[in-house]
Design goal:
The complex is a heterodimer.
Chain A lengths: L1 H13 L2 H31 L4 H38 L6 H27 L6 H21 L5 H22 L4 H26 L17 H27 L4 E4 L2 E3 L1 H12 L2 H27 L4 H35 L1 H7 L7 H26 L3 H23 L9 H23 L1 H7 L4
Antiparallel strand pairs in A: 1-2
Chain B lengths: L1 E8 L8 H11 L6 E7 L16 E8 L17 H9 L3 H14 L2 H6 L1 H14 L5 H19 L6 E6 L3 H13 L4 E6 L3 H13 L16 H20 L2 E4 L2 H9 L7 E3 L21 E5 L8 H8 L10 E5 L6 H13 L6 E5 L3 H7 L2 E4 L8 H8 L4 E4 L4 H6 L11 E4 L4 H13 L1 H18 L2 H18 L1
Parallel strand pairs in B: 1-2, 1-4, 2-3, 4-5, 5-6, 6-7, 8-9, 8-11, 9-10, 11-12, 12-13
Helix pairs in contact in B: 2-3, 6-7, 7-9, 11-16, 14-17
Classes of the chains: A mainly alpha, B alpha/beta.
């Protein structure tokens, strides 16, 4: 995402006021767009459904779709992105479309099978198995296409395609005004497919044709680091969601909306509101922090490859390390200010959203959670820049394990008063581990860069 | 345990050439002894088809791969307890420190830690800051790490037990042989140097960079760069160590003996044994004149043989003798790129009608077919081809490198037969052409050379002499052990 950050940074620094506003909007979209649109479209469509049973069924399928499509697709998209980057670096642009075809086929098939199986065998709404699977698949396909279209760096096109698809979904449901869930879901799916279609068309125009139809090379995990990346992504996502899933399914706090779909509405709402508070920081990170890190890291690697003397390399390394520490501090401060503000006004916010004020402490813990989650994500990104896959895997395992064990064995039995604490503590443990690992790796960066090469 | 372990680098039994043929001869001529050959190669890819039929008394063929990949550990090691021995040796390169270092390496084989530890990285950094701190660090790092890797693979290899170790060069083979002596101190160690290793390797590097320069510009005694100085220093050190551990040091001629002494060999250990050729195989025919106009080159088509000077010399002769043939016989696979460039050169000089590449030939038959042998090498030991040509009565035009002059002029002490050919400067095609023309145009001189050549081969380069000398040496050392 550093690529887009540079584009946006340039516009924000040099562009007109209108383009600056557009750039800021785009930066918000790029950093948090997926889930913002997901939430807005779910809420908009949900508000328009009159019948309560249909509403419950729709919300159940939609929320589970967005959550689990991200959990399912993200690890695969990580390795596809890596594979795609390697191909583009080798100037094999004619492999992009075959990889796209194979990715859509693979992710689409997997998504359909999983969604269909779950709805058909584990839920009380078997009659919606096919339509639910179609919806799940259409969302997964969109996430898949997104990683390909990002290579073109035409973020305006991405933004407007998304907007058009979402507008279609929302408007078509509004125009329909009925209660047939199948039709509502199909209209919603069509909106996603419309966006996906626009993006695919653009890809077909931009990238050359190939004799090959499908390229499944991304599934041949020949190197450990690719496997580590896949697992790390899975575990980090798992760590982020495991406490919620445990509360949904293993506590009395979980509410059955429809058989097979359980939620813990208050905790889910509180965490959603908390994550909303990170939007400004994420946008700032995308435009200013990540670009700065990327530049400094590129300079550092360039200094090595271009034949600099060691003293110069050490100086540039020092600049990079200081930049990391400084930027991490900036983000921490920025989010701390934002979180502190919302902690102060938490009472007003919970009452505005009709949440029982007794849950204000849960909201406050949620605000601290998102602060810590942000720090962890940034440290992980930094470690990824240097290809420290093993270390990220270690951190992700600790994160998932600690959140699972703390939730299951300590805080779940302690009741509703302590909801969120396991997530909070697991983040503390993970950040502590990540900090130790980062400091250790930063101290020996050159050693790892040079000596980790095989001989 | 075998009687004799031959240690050879980049040659027998996978490369056809003078040294490899010499080794084959040595094993075949001593059937009463059992042999092991330790072949030092770059990587497993160098194990190609055998170029020689392995004699029955060659019991075992072991390989040491200098560039063998070292597996990366799952967790990068920080410390290497053997590092203190390396540092002690760098600070004070005494024999005691060398033995401490090699013994711990032979025992622990810490190659993985050596190639991946933080201690090693710190060592490389400290060497960089001490001697090379204005060089690109990446280039220095990779050169140094490659360096260390080669030595480490040898130091961590398995040592076969034998009564006598016979190394055919210093360099990596010499390094390996010192380990044999340290591990089995009761066994004996002898060295036969065909060429002087460090000078030949330096020439290799020089040639690859400066292939079109004049000879004086590529004088191997001149330093080229700091990296190469370091390289040269290390291999000089290995030569000294090899000489130290050897019970006896041989070369092929007195000139190389003098160089060995110059490079640290004890005078009392040093002597020479000339190579020998089979006079029954290489039959003598008195040559009266260069009537067939067939000029031959026999050797590997590689840079160090400088085939291009031979090709270029044809341009000075072709106008006077348009039917003259230059026949280049010898393997071309070793350096295909060089061979292709030779073909390009022949084409560009429009000499395709006159210059032919024959590939591998039967050398005895080849000498029957040619009138004159030309050798334009940049470096040689004691080229067997000159002895073979001499045995057939074929005069030789050779460059003044290694033992060539002695083989053409005699050593002036034992061999006072006189001139049996011409000597020229390397990289001088015009001078080579003049020498060829002189012999074409002076049949009396040519005939005189032919007779002296045969006498020289018969008296001093006779295989029987060579065979009996080594047989005595082997009996002496093996029975002692």
């Amino acid at each position: 995402m550093a690529g887009i950050g540079f584009e946006l940074r340039k516009v924000i620094k040099e562009g007109s006021n209108i383009s600056k506003i557009s750039a800021v909007t785009q930066s918000v979209f790029v950093s948090s767009g997926n889930w913002i649109i997901s939430i807005i479209s779910i809420i908009s469509i949900g508000l328009h459904i009159n019948k309560s049973t249909t509403y419950d069924q729709f919300m159940a399928i939609a929320i589970y779709t967005f959550v689990f499509s991200m959990i399912l697709t993200t690890p695969f998209l990580t390795i596809i992105t890596r594979f795609l980057s390697d191909k583009l670096f080798a100037k094999e642009e004619d492999s992009v479309i075959p990889i796209l075809n194979a990715s859509l086929l693979f992710i689409g098939s997997l998504s359909f099978i999983i969604a269909y199986s779950y709805i058909h065998f584990f839920t009380g709404i078997k009659e919606f198995d096919l339509v639910g699977a179609r919806f799940f698949t259409s969302v997964s396909l969109l996430w898949t296409v997104m990683i390909f279209i990002s290579t073109l760096k035409d973020y305006s096109f991405i933004f407007y395609s998304f907007l058009l698809g979402s507008i279609f979904s929302i408007c078509s449901v509004y125009i329909y005004s009925g209660d047939d869930l199948s039709f509502i879901l199909d209209l919603y799916s069509f909106g996603f497919l419309l966006t996906t279609g626009f993006l695919i068309m653009r890809l077909l125009v931009e990238f050359p044709k190939s004799n090959k139809l499908l390229e499944f090379g991304f599934l041949k995990i020949r190197r450990f680091r690719i496997l580590f990346m896949f697992l790390s992504t899975t575990f980090i996502l798992g760590g982020t969601w495991i406490d919620k899933i445990i509360y949904w399914w293993q506590s009395d706090l979980g509410v059955v909306v429809v058989t097979g779909f359980k939620f813990y509405p208050i905790y889910d709402t509180v965490m959603f509101l908390s994550f909303l508070t990170t939007i400004p920081v994420l946008a700032y990170f995308t435009v200013f922090i990540e670009t700065d890190l990327y530049e400094k890291q590129s300079n550092f690697l360039f200094s090595i490859e271009s034949g600099s003397i060691l003293n110069k390399i050490l100086d540039i390394e020092s600049i990079l390390n200081n930049s990391f520490k400084t930027n991490l501090f900036k983000i921490l401060m920025f989010q701390l200010v934002v979180s502190s503000f919302f902690i102060l006004v938490s009472g007003y916010i919970v009452s505005y959203f009709n949440i029982n004020p007794l849950y204000a402490p849960m909201f406050r813990i949620g605000l601290l959670i998102v602060l810590l989650q942000l720090i962890l994500n940034i440290v992980v990104i930094f470690l990824y820049y240097f290809d420290y896959q093993k270390e990220v895997l270690l951190i992700s395992v600790i994160f998932l394990l600690s959140n699972t064990l703390l939730t299951e064995f300590i805080f779940l039995p302690m009741g509703e008063l302590y909801v969120g604490y396991s997530y909070f503590l697991s983040l503390i443990i993970s950040i502590f581990t990540a900090a130790l690992v980062s400091l250790y790796k930063i101290r020996y960066t050159l050693y790892y860069i040079f000596m980790e090469n095989k001989i | 345990m075998t009687d004799i372990c031959l240690v050879v680098e980049g040659s027998y039994p996978y490369v056809k050439g003078g040294v490899a043929s010499w080794i084959q001869q040595l094993i075949e001529n001593n059937p009463e002894f059992s042999f092991t050959v330790v072949a030092l190669l770059a990587t497993e890819k160098d194990i190609t088809n055998l170029k020689y039929k392995l004699p029955k008394n060659l019991i075992s063929l072991q390989h040491v791969f200098i560039r063998k990949e070292t597996k990366k550990p799952i967790l990068m090691p920080f410390k290497m307890k053997e590092m203190k021995f390396i540092k002690s040796y760098i600070d004070n390169n005494s024999i005691i420190n060398y033995e401490k270092l090699t013994k711990v390496f032979l025992k622990n084989k810490p190659i993985q830690k050596l190639m991946y530890s933080l201690d090693t990285f710190r060592l490389i950094k400290s060497l960089y800051f001490k001697h090379f701190n204005d060089m690109p660090f990446m280039n220095f790092f990779w050169s140094m790490r490659g360096f260390i890797h080669g030595f480490a693979n040898v130091l961590c290899s398995d040592i076969p037990e034998a009564k006598l170790y016979h190394t055919v060069s210093t360099g990596y083979a010499g390094l390996f042989s010192t380990l044999c002596k340290i591990k089995y101190p009761k066994s004996k160690l002898i060295l036969t140097e065909h060429g002087i290793y460090t000078r030949e390797r330096k020439m290799d590097i020089t040639i690859s960079d400066w292939s079109d320069r004049r000879f004086n510009d590529i004088d191997p005694t001149k330093s080229i760069s700091a990296y190469r100085d370091l390289w040269e220093m290390s291999f000089n050190e290995i030569s000294k160590l090899t000489y130290h551990y050897c019970d006896k040091i041989y070369s092929l001629n007195k000139k190389n003996n003098d160089i060995q002494i110059e490079e640290g060999a004890e005078k009392s250990k040093v002597s020479f044994i000339r190579n020998g050729v089979s006079l029954s195989k290489f039959k003598y025919t008195e040559r009266k004149s260069i009537e067939r106009l067939k000029i031959g080159f026999l050797g590997r088509v590689v840079k160090i043989k400088d085939v291009k000077t031979f090709i270029k010399s044809a341009t000075y002769i072709i106008n006077t003798y348009p039917d003259i043939e230059f026949l280049i016989a010898g393997p071309v696979e070793e350096d295909r790129i060089y061979y292709e460039s030779c073909l390009e050169l022949v084409k560009s000089l429009s000499l395709s009608e006159n210059i032919k590449f024959l590939g591998n030939v039967n050398s005895a038959d080849f000498f029957k077919d040619i009138d004159l042998m030309v050798l334009t090498s940049l470096s040689e030991g004691q080229p067997l081809v000159i002895a073979e040509a001499n045995a057939c009565g074929v005069p030789v035009v050779a460059t003044d490198v290694g033992g060539c002059k002695e083989m053409v002029f005699g050593d002036g002490v034992e061999d006072t037969l006189g001139q049996s050919g011409e000597i020229t400067k390397p990289l001088e095609p015009k001078e080579t052409a003049k020498a060829i023309l002189r012999l074409i145009e002076d049949p009396r001189l040519y005939n005189k050379y032919s007779k002296i050549a045969y006498k020289r081969a018969n008296l001093f380069y006779n295989e029987e002499t060579f065979k009996s000398k080594y047989n005595l040496i082997y009996k002496d050392y093996v029975w002692q052990a």
